[in-house]
Amino acid sequence: MSMPLLSARHLVKTYASRRGAFTKPTLVKAVEDVSLSIDKGRTLGIVGESGSGKSTTGRLVLGLEDPTGGRVTFDGAAMPGLKTPEWRGLRRRMQLVYQDPLAALDRRIPIGEQIEEPLEIHEIGTPEERKERVAELMRAVGLRPDQASQYPHELSGGQRQRVVIARAIACGPELLVCDEPVSALDVSIQAQVVNLLRDLQEEHGIAMIFISHDLKVVRNICDRVVVMYLGRVVEEGPSDEIFSKPFHPYTQALVSSVPVPGTSLTDRIILEGEPPNPASRPSGCAFHPRCRFATARCRTENPQLLTVAAEREVACHLLGPAQVPASIAS
Ligand code: SF4
């Protein structure tokens, strides 16, 4: 078996949260015991509602935040500490595509210079070679090289995200973490940007972690999917299986909102209530207040993530190893 490009084991991220100026801070777990891996050239989707910990997980695997517990390895080596020289060296191999392109770009600097910046930081090429590379990158993302002198505010939202992507791939990264890369764009533009990411990935063999609450996009682009709820992984498996036969009740509800050809889930499952606040996590299975299958055990005992079928892991008391009850499987 080949070594994954990136592997995260038992990641934990805890923040101190204070409810008022005179109260003691309490520790809130944004991410709890999250493990995942991604192979070279593959795409892993991380899905879940807001507050599920998916963006924090993305930042942890990129080393943009140090985990409170657990470890990340990239290409077989432990992730160096934040802002160390080793970490800076690794940044050219791993890049983040942000949700909001306007926030990711500097409004005062022409876009050509912003695309060139990572090449300068990593001292790649001569000034002339860098200019050529910027033109090549702009063409690769569907922009004209003569737009290099334009400023971000002169571009549309979709064009700005193309600039962000050009900058992210400038140094030839092996891994892109895309955090809601199309959610700030018009629906008409979203498909173009998703297709661009997929084309670039195929052409350059880049591995991609695609963080999104939009399951339609994830279904189209990802090989595997991790489903998170309140900081924990509740289901993981190949994308086509997750979407055609979701096992976890939470995944079933998410998937039911997306029509999937061939699925047996024809009725939308409405999730009652909002996801709980991580600062007041429910006892037992955190999903139990919203779960249509909850039992007394679910209120007291947290289910472990278990392998229930080939390449499928689920955290639910109703599912044991190779054991999928009919009530949940249909
Ligand atoms: Fe629902 Fe219980 Fe399974 Fe949690 S453990 S998803 S509450 S059935």
General description of the model:
The two termini are 33 Å apart. An 8-stranded mixed beta sheet has the order 6-7-8-3-9-10-12-11, sandwiched between helices. The protein has helices at residues 54-61, 85-91, 101-104, 111-121, 127-140, 157-169, 187-204, 215-221, 239-244, 249-256, 296-300, 326-329, and strands spanning 6-17, 26-38, 43-47, 69-74, 77-78, 94-97, 175-179, 207-211, 224-229, 232-238, 306-309, 312-314. The longest helix is centred in the middle third of the chain and has 18 residues, at 187-204. Strand 1 (6-17) and strand 2 form a beta hairpin. By secondary structure, it is an alpha/beta fold. It has a single domain (6-329), classed as P-loop containing nucleotide triphosphate hydrolases (Rossmann fold), CATH 3.40.50. Helices cover 32% and strands 22% of the residues. It is globular. Iron/sulfur cluster binds next to loops.
The percent of residues in helical segments reads 25-40%
Strand order of the largest sheet: 6-7-8-3-9-10-12-11
Low-pLDDT stretches: none
Number of helices: 12
The CATH class assignment is: Alpha Beta
Quote the CATH topology. Answer: Rossmann fold
**Which kinds of small molecule does this entry bind, naming each only once?**
iron/sulfur cluster
- What is the residue-mean pLDDT, rounded to a whole number? 90
Per DSSP E runs of 2 or more residues, the count of β-strands stands at 12
The biggest beta sheet is recorded as: 8 strands, mixed
**Judging from the principal axes of the Cα atoms, what is the shape?**
globular
CATH level-two architecture: 3-Layer(aba) Sandwich
- CATH superfamily heading: P-loop containing nucleotide triphosphate hydrolases
- Order of secondary-structure elements: EEEHEEHEHHHHEHEHEEHHHEEH
Span between termini: 33 Å
How many domain modules?
Answer: 1
How large a portion of the residues is in β-strands, by DSSP E?
A: 15-25%
Helix/strand-derived category reads: alpha/beta
Radius of gyration: 21 Å
